[in-house]
Task: inverse folding
């Protein structure tokens, strides 16, 4: 029997460091012995983009490719990283250009892991990923920061012949590239290609360089959208086009904030969109993802939720980050005093988790997110809205998200709200909606969703 898939996507920001040694780049692979007769392949793919090192964790035996790791620390001889939501950690030594030796651990179980470089990375078929030739123009574009020191935004602009409109893509939480790549899928590349072939210009972009991203908040991401709109207006082919936004997950909230302040935004499209406070979203995630695991008891789920909500309330009530950190430490200690040693381990309230959890909750991005009331911005969105969610989304409750959009957005006959059956958070056709299913699904995004987007833009935006 293989151990359970150990990857998950939650609202987590990624933390990576600039790498000095070039020999670490590439694909590494090894096996952990999960029993006397069974093993599991573990792969690491380490790449460099701009000033950001990206480490992706693979489990090819489980059809799982490309989970971004976090809390990465790499120097000339040491390497460590974690995937906290699955309680996965690795610590090892970079012995030479071809060998990394260390210990892979999950939920208290430790496995020796010898990683070797040079094997071919196993990738799975993603039939929707676009390939050339393209019947539209493609330009790589960089926008400098306000002091003209470095490239703040780097992206890809597509311009079809006689473009009818322009859409700008906004990715979800955590550092994302311009294609919102995950598990070998490239959702924004797929959507951009479909839009471009339908005569709609597109711009998709990488998140800020890491040093900037780690200090940024949802409001900074919204400001970036407005800067992109202002910059793209200088391109003659785009000057007089209606300009809209397509945001996925947290990118949906960014789109709402930007549209509430910028009358030039003619429409917004929200995929697995956000309209609730982050407290409610995270609470839903904990319950829904845990409940999908038949081995987890209802009592355990409820206690996990209770503990998490206690910590979330501290962040929500804190006036500033310093107060938040002190209050989180105090609350953490009070919670653990009431737990047995076994419970501390089971609920991941161990001393080593204390630092990483409190650090994550008190980052500028997370802290700010806990102090954003989405309804404040939804109430000021005057442009038409298309929202599409899946009823098997276990990260954002589709029915609640649509309910609050309907409640707080100003009435607009052009608004359209859709909950699609049997689609997950990535809007893939799915069976369970669980995260370990994402990588096993060949479809990047439902063709019906793509069709809904193109029809709505054509009928509502272009004919208005």
Result:
């Amino acid at each position: 029997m293989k151990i359970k898939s150990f990857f998950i996507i939650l609202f987590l920001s990624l933390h990576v460091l600039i790498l000095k040694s070039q020999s670490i780049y590439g694909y590494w692979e090894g096996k952990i012995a999960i029993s006397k007769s069974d093993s599991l392949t573990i792969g690491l793919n380490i790449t460099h983009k701009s000033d950001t090192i990206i480490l992706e964790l693979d489990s090819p035996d489980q059809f799982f490719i490309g989970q971004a790791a976090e809390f990465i620390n790499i120097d000339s001889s040491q390497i460590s990283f974690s995937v906290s939501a699955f309680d996965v950690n690795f610590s090892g030594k970079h012995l030479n250009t071809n060998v990394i030796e260390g210990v892979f651990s999950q939920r208290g179980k430790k496995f020796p892991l010898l990683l070797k470089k040079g094997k071919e990375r196993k990738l799975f078929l993603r039939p929707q990923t676009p390939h050339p030739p393209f019947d539209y123009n493609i330009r790589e574009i960089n926008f400098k920061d306000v002091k003209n020191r470095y490239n703040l935004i780097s992206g890809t602009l597509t311009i079809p012949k006689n473009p009818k409109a322009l859409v700008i893509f906004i990715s979800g939480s955590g550092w994302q590239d311009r294609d919102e790549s995950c598990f070998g899928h490239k959702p924004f590349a797929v959507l951009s290609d479909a839009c471009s072939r339908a005569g709609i210009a597109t711009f998709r972009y990488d998140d800020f360089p890491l040093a900037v991203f780690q200090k940024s908040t949802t409001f900074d991401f919204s400001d970036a959208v407005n800067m992109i709109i202002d910059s793209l207006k200088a391109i003659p082919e785009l000057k007089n086009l209606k300009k809209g936004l397509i945001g996925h997950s947290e990118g949906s909230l960014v789109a709402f904030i930007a549209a509430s302040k910028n009358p030039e935004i003619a429409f917004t499209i929200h995929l697995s969109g956000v309209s609730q406070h982050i407290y409610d979203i995270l609470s839903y995630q904990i319950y829904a993802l845990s409940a999908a695991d038949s081995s987890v008891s209802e009592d355990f789920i409820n206690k996990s939720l209770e503990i998490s909500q206690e910590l979330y309330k501290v962040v929500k009530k804190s006036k500033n980050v310093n107060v938040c950190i002190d209050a989180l430490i105090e609350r953490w200690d009070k919670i653990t005093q009431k737990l047995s040693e076994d419970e501390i381990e089971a609920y991941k309230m161990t001393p080593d988790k204390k630092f990483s959890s409190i650090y994550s909750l008190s980052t500028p991005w997370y802290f700010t997110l806990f102090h954003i009331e989405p309804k404040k911005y939804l109430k000021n969105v005057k442009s038409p809205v298309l929202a599409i969610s899946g009823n098997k989304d276990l990260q954002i409750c589709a029915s609640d998200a649509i309910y609050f959009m309907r409640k707080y957005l100003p009435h607009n006959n052009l608004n359209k709200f859709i909950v699609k059956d049997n689609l997950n958070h990535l809007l893939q056709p799915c069976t369970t909606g669980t995260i370990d299913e994402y990588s096993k699904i060949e479809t990047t995004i439902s063709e019906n969703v793509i069709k809904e987007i193109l029809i709505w833009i054509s009928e509502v935006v272009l004919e208005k």
In short: The chain is about 30% helix and 25% strand. The domain at 137-277+372-462 is CATH 3.40.50.1820 (Rossmann fold). The two ends are 57 Å apart (CA to CA).
